[in-house]
């Protein structure tokens, strides 16, 4: 018999979530995750993926994965430290270091796992972490796991960061102090102020940690936010994911050789969890090779992003101040935002609503993620649907 306490807990809490309209019913995608997807048997223009460069369905990556399966099989066989480090993992890490312009890199099973791994390998209860209030959930969890003191910093507020860094340093309470930030903030598409952050880090001897999940493949001609600002020699930890622009799955930390050597002996997800499969490693390596050979996909992503932004703005939508292809369409009220997204879906545009508490109250938005794989026709159609729904609902 299952636990009565658990049953009660689940029944009560699920009912409460459903009553508040906060239960998320997950849609099943019945097609590959490309620019057009099928949901409930109906085709939708997909503006909700993180597949920025369209690589998730790229023929060259598919071939690399299939070849790797033929040659290496489907699994790594063991954790990396026992005998699960395949030649393919080493190749991937060498490519990543080259791509990021660092001495070395280490790969993990996901971007989320990187943050579980890397922060607590270096930080402990005698340390402090200055963390932007809009940092990703995995950064927050990684900080908590380390048991360091977490000092929340107002979003991209450099005066606040400087003040708190100064206080933390002058208190003499902490051995090490880290500053940690997303490279690109995915809700608004704004870029971290890395030049100022690094200046403050140098002034107060802070360890710098940039999670560039949404920047890699997008900024710095593809190499990411750190490269965009030319700071590859100054940022201690460069975190990335292989699941967004790279189109596969996995994560990595790039940095100095000593740091990577340390993570190989001290980061628990590396030591106690099996690495990505041969297919994942080979496909991700192929993706990085493609990005290093040509900026074609990167350029098309920006062209499409700018095209969509221009179209929505011309219609009178509030698209915020994004500095990347991420295009929020800010509707405001939570209920209207959700209804708006639902109407878009009925008309054939798949763009998700993001509301409080993920974003501040009254700034509900439908977030659009254009990719390199969208055609102008698809974007024109999406813009026309936005116009229709916007007028119908009195948003424009
Ligand atoms: C998406 C994201 C992650 C998680 O990456 P996965 O590879 O999907 O686990 C981590 N950090 C940030 C900032 C992200 O945006």
Element layout with pairings:
Layout: H1 4-19, E1 36-39, E2 42-46, H2 59-72, H3 80-84, H4 87-100, E3 104-108, H5 111-122, E4 128-132, H6 137-146, E5 149-153, H7 158-171, E6 177-182, E7 184-185, E8 190-191, H8 194-204, E9 207-211, H9 225-228, E10 237-241, E11 251-255, H10 257-266, H11 268-272, H12 278-293, H13 296-314, E12 327-332, H14 334-347, E13 349-350, E14 352-354, E15 364-368, H15 376-392
Parallel strand pairs: 2-13, 4-5, 4-6, 6-9, 9-10
Antiparallel strand pairs: 1-2, 3-11, 7-8, 10-11, 12-15, 14-15
Helix pairs in contact: 2-12, 4-12, 5-6, 7-8, 13-15, 14-15
The structure holds pyridoxal-5'-phosphate (PLP).
Features:
single chain; 396 residues; Aspartate Aminotransferase, domain 1; Aspartate Aminotransferase, domain 2; 2 domains; 7-stranded mixed β-sheet; 3-stranded mixed β-sheet; binds pyridoxal-5'-phosphate; pyridoxal phosphate; acyltransferase; PyrdxlP-dep_Trfase_major; EC 2.3.1.29
Overall description:
It comes from Lederbergia citrea. Its cofactor is pyridoxal 5'-phosphate. The structure is a single chain. It contains 15 helices and 15 strands. It is of the alpha/beta class. Strands 3-11-10-9-6-4-5 form a seven-stranded mixed β-sheet, with helices on both faces. Strands 1-2-13 form a three-stranded mixed β-sheet. Helix 2 runs antiparallel to helix 12 and helix 13 runs parallel beside helix 15. 50% of the residues are buried. Pyridoxal-5'-phosphate binds next to helix 5.
């Amino acid at each position: 018999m299952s636990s009565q306490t658990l049953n009660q807990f689940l029944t009560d809490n699920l009912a409460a979530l459903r009553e508040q309209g906060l239960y998320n019913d997950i849609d099943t995608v019945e097609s590959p995750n490309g620019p057009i997807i099928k949901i409930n048997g109906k085709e939708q223009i997909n503006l909700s993926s993180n597949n920025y460069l369209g690589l998730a369905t790229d023929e060259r990556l598919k071939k690399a994965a299939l070849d790797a399966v033929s040659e290496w099989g489907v699994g790594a066989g063991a954790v990396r430290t026992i005998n699960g480090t395949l030649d393919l993992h080493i190749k991937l890490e060498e490519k990543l270091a080259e791509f990021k312009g660092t001495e070395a890199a280490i790969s993990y099973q996901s971007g989320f796992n990187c943050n579980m791994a890397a922060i607590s390998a270096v930080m402990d209860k005698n340390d402090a972490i200055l963390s932007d209030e809009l940092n990703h959930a995995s950064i927050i969890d990684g900080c908590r796991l380390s048991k360091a003191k977490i000092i929340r910093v107002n979003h991209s507020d450099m005066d606040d960061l400087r003040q708190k860094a100064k206080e933390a340093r002058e208190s003499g309470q902490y051995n090490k102090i880290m500053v940690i930030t997303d490279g690109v903030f995915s809700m608004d598409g704004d870029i971290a102020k890395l030049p100022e952050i690094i200046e403050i880090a140098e002034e107060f001897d802070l360890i710098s940690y940039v999670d560039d999940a949404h920047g890699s493949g997008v900024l710095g001609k593809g190499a990411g936010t750190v490269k965009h600002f030319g700071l590859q020699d100054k940022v201690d930890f460069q975190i990335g994911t292989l699941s967004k622009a790279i189109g596969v799955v996995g994560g990595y930390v790039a940095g100095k050789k000593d740091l990577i050597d340390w993570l190989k002996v001290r980061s628990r997800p590396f030591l106690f969890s099996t690495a990505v499969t041969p297919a994942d490693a080979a496909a991700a390596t192929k993706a990085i090779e493609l990005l290093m050979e040509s900026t074609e996909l990167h350029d098309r992503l920006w062209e499409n992003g700018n095209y969509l932004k221009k179209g929505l703005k011309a219609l009178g939508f509030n698209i915020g101040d994004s500095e990347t292809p991420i295009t929020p369409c800010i509707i405001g009220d939570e209920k209207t935002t959700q209804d708006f997204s639902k109407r878009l879906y009925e008309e054939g545009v798949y763009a998700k609503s993001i509301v409080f508490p993920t974003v501040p109250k009254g700034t509900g938005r439908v977030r659009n993620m254009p990719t390199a794989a969208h055609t102008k026709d698809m974007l024109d159609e999406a813009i026309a649907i936005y116009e229709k729904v916007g007028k119908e609902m009195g948003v424009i």
